[in-house]
């Protein structure tokens, strides 16, 4: 009978487990576990991304004779520290100056632009728009924003403290990820029946290949986007080009929406410049996206994830609604892990069904 089928038992067990989790959550028994997950999430997430980037380099160094594993890892860390120090000595002053100018001068420039817009509306509105009403709406919005900022000062301070903690913890987590990665799969396989361990190894290997290809490829694309946007901003004469390009690099790790989010600060800055600057920024974005989509992404990413673009868009929309930028960051690799796992398990099931 179907009720005696093993998969029915597994599904029933999963449903009962989810019901148990639901009631434990209602009773707030899971609060300590949630705190632990929130504390560990960001260090593990960042260390995981860096692990897939640095793993090929560490393995390459380990091929050299008489170099222990720990020395290979520490040499990579030292090289990164040296690179960051060099980059800081070359660009820190410029980045600091541009960031300071943005925070101090940009609000004043935006106010001047708004005054010019008011004058233009007064001159050409023909009674269709009310400047006073626009001013009231703007004042109301700014007042609400200021109130929200004041209400969230503690959250901002807490976030900064958390970011400092993450920066301190990540190198240690990353070191052991790189050092003990060969122990992870054998450890997990201990919980799998012996006759299925070969399939388990295949699943973990496929997951690792997919994640490695996606993370390295997407970060490469983000860096290329940032460099190209900086060149474009410099050509059109947009102020604060370096800081704005760095912001694009950070957001471009998210496919599709990342570059669009990254260009928003540049559009705000462009509003304070000559009238055509906004158009120049948009043209720069279009040109860079054409280069990325037709040259860089196919070369670096190829079709490694084999995910339809519509699926990616829907995943990003849902992830953004649930967990904001972090959701956008992890949605695609998480979906890839689930997809690989399900497909591999389905193939194993069909294979065992044929041999049964």
Strand content: under 5%
Average pLDDT for all residues: 77
The number of distinct β-strands equals: 0
The N- and C-terminal alpha carbons lie at a distance of 17 Å
Query: What is Rg?
Result: 26 Å
Count of runs of 4 or more consecutive helical residues = 11
Chart the SSEs and their pairings.
Elements: H1 6-26, H2 31-62, H3 69-124, H4 131-151, H5 153-189, H6 197-236, H7 241-251, H8 257-262, H9 264-271, H10 277-300, H11 309-355
Short description, anyone?
With 356 residues, this protein is mostly helical. The protein is built from eleven helices and no strands.
What does this structure look like?
By secondary structure, this protein is mainly α. The protein is built from eleven helices and no strands. The longest helix has 56 residues, at 69-124. The two termini are 17 Å apart.
List descriptors:
11 helices, globular, 356 residues, single chain, mainly alpha
């Amino acid at each position: 009978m179907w009720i005696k089928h093993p998969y029915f038992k597994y599904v029933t067990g999963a449903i009962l487990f989810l019901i148990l989790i639901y009631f434990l959550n209602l009773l707030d028994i899971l609060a300590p576990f949630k705190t632990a997950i929130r504390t560990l999430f960001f260090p593990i997430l960042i260390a995981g991304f860096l692990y897939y980037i640095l793993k090929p380099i560490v393995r390459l160094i380990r091929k050299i004779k008489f170099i222990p594993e720990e020395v290979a890892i520490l040499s990579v860390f030292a090289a990164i520290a040296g690179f960051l120090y060099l980059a800081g000595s070359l660009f820190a002053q410029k980045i600091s100056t541009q960031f300071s100018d943005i925070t101090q001068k940009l609000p004043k420039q935006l106010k001047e632009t708004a005054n010019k817009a008011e004058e233009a509306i007064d001159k050409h509105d023909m009674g269709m728009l009310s400047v006073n009403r626009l001013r009231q709406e703007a004042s109301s919005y700014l007042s609400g924003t200021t109130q929200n900022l004041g209400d969230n000062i503690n959250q901002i301070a807490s976030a900064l403290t958390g970011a400092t903690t993450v920066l301190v913890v990540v190198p240690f987590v990353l070191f052991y990820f790189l050092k003990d990665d060969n122990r992870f799969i054998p450890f997990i396989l201990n919980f799998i029946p012996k006759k299925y361990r070969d399939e388990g190894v295949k699943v973990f290997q496929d997951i690792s290949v997919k994640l490695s290809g996606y993370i390295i490829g997407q970060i490469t694309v983000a860096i290329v986007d940032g460099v190209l946007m900086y060149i474009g901003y410099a050509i059109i004469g947009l102020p604060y080009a370096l800081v704005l390009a760095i912001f694009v690099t950070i957001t471009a790790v998210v496919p599709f929406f990342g570059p669009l989010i990254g260009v928003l600060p540049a559009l705000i800055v462009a509003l304070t410049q000559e009238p055509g600057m906004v158009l120049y920024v948009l043209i720069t974005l279009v040109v860079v996206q054409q280069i990325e989509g037709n040259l860089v992404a196919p070369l670096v990413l190829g079709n490694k994830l084999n995910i339809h673009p519509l699926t990616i868009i829907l995943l990003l929309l849902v992830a953004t609604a649930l967990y904001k930028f972090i959701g956008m960051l992890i949605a695609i690799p998480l979906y890839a892990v689930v997809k690989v796992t399900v497909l591999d398990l389905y193939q194993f099931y069909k294979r065992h069904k044929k041999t049964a």
